[in-house]
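Example for tutorial group B:
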């Protein structure tokens, strides 16, 4: 991408998901110092991005200024003045899709988060479950930048992935052991890591 690249990063909510974007953006900027990022989210999430170089914050106000469809049009017109060259949709909801489409119609390329809904359905369906590890959210965020054909390999995101997966695993094992003590062993408990 050219020197004057400015990427709009969309992640409206929730707090935990917005917070997980911060290490990904930090690593991305470290690897691509000539690129500017403009994060659009709720004002209460701005502190997550204060210490990041080349990252600016734009307040999304869904209760007043940017409420409803016409509010999204207003937000688009405001953001368009920022000379956006690409859109990274890290939310993939109706609002972010509308915003991404509006930018697309003006010739701005975009990439959207794959939430892994198909894999999650395969894992949680009643029969014929497909048990395989799911990609963690921080890696999915990093993948959006890769879809924009930007060089990006996030060591910090990979480390965070491992930490989250480890925490989930050990919490599940510990909880399973506690429930087995309280309620009795379940059918497959004896073959489990607990």
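The residue assignment follows.
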């Amino acid at each position: 991408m050219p020197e004057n690249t400015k990427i709009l990063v969309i992640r409206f909510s929730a707090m935990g998901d917005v917070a997980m974007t911060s290490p990904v953006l930090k690593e991305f900027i470290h690897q691509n110092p000539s690129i500017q990022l403009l994060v659009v989210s709720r004002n209460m999430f701005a502190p997550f991005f204060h210490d990041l170089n080349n990252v600016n914050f734009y307040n999304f106000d869904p209760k007043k200024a940017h409420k409803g469809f016409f509010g999204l049009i207003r937000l688009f017109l405001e953001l368009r003045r920022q000379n956006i060259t690409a859109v990274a949709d890290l939310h993939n909801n109706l609002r972010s899709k509308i915003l991404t489409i509006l930018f697309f119609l003006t010739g701005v390329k975009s990439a959207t988060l794959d939430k892994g809904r198909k894999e999650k359905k395969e894992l949680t369906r009643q029969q014929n479950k497909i048990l395989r590890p799911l990609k963690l959210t921080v890696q999915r965020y990093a993948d959006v930048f890769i879809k924009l054909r930007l060089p990006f390999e996030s060591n910090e995101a990979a480390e965070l992935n491992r930490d989250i997966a480890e925490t989930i695993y050990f919490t599940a094992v510990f909880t399973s052991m506690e429930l087995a003590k309280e309620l009795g062993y379940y059918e497959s408990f004896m073959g489990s890591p607990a």
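Residues 155-183 form the longest helix (29 residues). Compare this with the pattern of hydrophobic and polar residues in the output above.
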